[in-house]
Amino acid sequence: YGGDHSQKKNINQDLYKKFPFLNEKYDFSMSRAKEDMKIHLVIEAYKQSTNRNIVIISNWDSSEYGKNLYSENYNKFTNIFLVNAIYDLDILNSIRSNASLYIHSHSLCGTAPSLVEAMCLGLPIISIDVPQNRFTTENMAFYFEDLNSLILLLDSLSEKKLEENSSKMYKIAKMRYSWKQIALKYENCLS
């Protein structure tokens, strides 16, 4: 899956009005509202790590899991922002490209588009520790296994570590996840 269609975007004034969290520093996560996406771990970690903000975009109404998480947490914590699914790529890119880091909590996936897109945007990556995510990030992201390891990781990140990880993720993405590279691989398979 390619991800270089995701482009850095500046935030326009209308978005600041619609999404006030854009005025502050924030982390970002995006996934479907399914249990294997482990959104509950991310929410719980930020309940306990209140020195960081998190924006989580999901299709909350698509499952009981999502509905329950949304109703239990929406507007109840000053550092947790639950946003309904956004399908406008310009708005989505504005929000995610201005984040401090991306948290990938998908535990049952292949090469996840949202992970590849975040890497192409040069975001530092924190990922749940499963083989497919390690493969995608070439073992160079930050990894967590459970709630406690995610909290410890969030509390230990320095700006220097984040900058170094950002650079590594972007280099991997440029090398492996451009649409040009993906098209060449398919072309080679078919010839």
Class of secondary structure makeup: alpha/beta
Show unreliable segments: none
Overall outline: globular
Number of helices, where a helix is a run of at least 4 consecutive DSSP H or I residues: 9
Radius of gyration, taken over Cα atoms and rounded to an integer in Å: 16 Å
What's the overall average pLDDT, rounded? Answer: 90
Helix content: 40-55%
Strand order of the largest sheet: 1-2-3
Order of helices and strands: HEHEHEHEHEHEHHH
Count all strands and give the number.
6
β-sheet strand percentage: 5-15%
Most strands sheet: 3 strands, parallel
Distance between the termini: 20 Å
What is the strand and helix layout of this fold?
Elements (H helix, E strand, L loop, with lengths): L12 H6 L8 E4 L8 H10 L5 E5 L5 H10 L6 E5 L4 H9 L4 E3 L8 H8 L4 E4 L2 H6 L5 E3 L2 H10 L2 H18 L2 H12 L1
Helix pairs in contact: 2-7, 5-8
Notable characteristics:
single chain, 191 residues, 9 helices
